[in-house]
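Run: sequence + cytidine-5'-triphosphate -> complex structure.
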Amino acid sequence: MSAPRERKVFDPSAPLRDAEIVVGVGGGIAAYKACELVRLLTKAGAKVQVIMTRRARKFVGPLTFQALTGRAVFTDLFSLTQESEIGHIAVADRADLIVVAPATANVVARLAAGFTDDALTAVCLATRAPVLLAPSMNVNMWQHPITQANLRRLVEVAGTFVVGPGDGFLACRWTGPGRLAEPADIVEAACRVLAPQDLAGRRLVVTAGPTHEPLDPVRFLGNRSSGKMGYALAAAAARRGATVTLLAGPTALPDPVGLEVVHVEDARAMEAAIEAHAWSAHAVIMAAAIADFRPAAPSDRKLKRTEIGLQPSIILDSNPDLLGGLGAERARRGAGPLLVGFAAETHDVVGYAQAKLVAKQCDLMVANDVTSPDAGFAVDTNRVVLVERGATREVPLASKPEIAHRILDRVVELIAARG
Ligand code: CTP
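>> structure
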């Protein structure tokens, strides 16, 4: 057995960039979705080599994949031309990751038995790279104890990764588990396999989005937070192996896959959710824009224009400072999670962030200038300063997912430093 090749280190914010990925396409109707998967992997910067089984070629032509990847598709282990041009051992050696999508019941069975009778199974057995299966098959085939045992064997004996299958309407007209995971979810699973798992074994709580403070059943006081930064942080932490609980105020964003999401409406519900989750976490990252005030006496029925009058005024009560409360309670207990706050400011950004770091007794403040058109609320990019006692670090303009990873780079170090 040759010595394991040293695994490349991938940047968790773009683990697919320049990665050599083999996509093995099995013979099922979901083979057409592998085209979108290959497109997304290529778009993310991966160099993709497609291998198709004989049955897969009944569903999709190799030309489609060749056009998407710019590489000839490997189909035949026994073709002298293909073997001399591509070579199954060379493909197996070069791979950073093998993704099999769709992994049909037949492919799963052959992989579990260690067969090498076609290009795909031969490459999967010959590689030292991680293998990620995206199963797709009829619900009865999926639930069959033999298929389940085959998968268990692959996971437990060979360390194979599995994503999906999803639950839904299947091409065979059955409804149930068996549907190929969405291509974007397979891509994220691939990112997780390649990204450094430097948050494995850590529990993170991330708050995100605005809070809506009710005036009556149809009106609320809110703010401009879209939740994008907090959602990006939660997804980024999950990619790096953390067990993540996302406490989300009302946003238009879909729930990220693979983590626990708790939806809350207002600051007091956020407070209860934080109380329930924060104390068992290694770190709490407070990216939510929690309202400082709430209507003092919300009505339980819709306020009519005539009742409100011509110059309405709203009496407000203060909401508790949740991060400040966590900081004070942690100081009282003498133990608790790492606390990370966000300071959205319009002027003297670092000065206010430093003052908040001290006032709220937290470990790291992520400061950003929300007046800048390419940073802060509702946009897809951000530019922040990481403020700690005695140190500031600038993180230049980048996408929110990338900023999230740069924040987490520091969180990883700070958690480790606390022991
Ligand atoms: N925060 C909180 N509870 C609140 C308000 C804010 O926990 N009621 C948290 C936010 O999640 C953020 C940090 O405190 O991590 C700073 O929020 P920010 O609105 O900038 O600070 P405030 O203390 O509300 O100060 P001000 O609005 O006066 O700038």
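>> summary
The chain has two domains: 20-194, 203-294+314-418. DSSP finds 16 helices and 19 strands in the chain.
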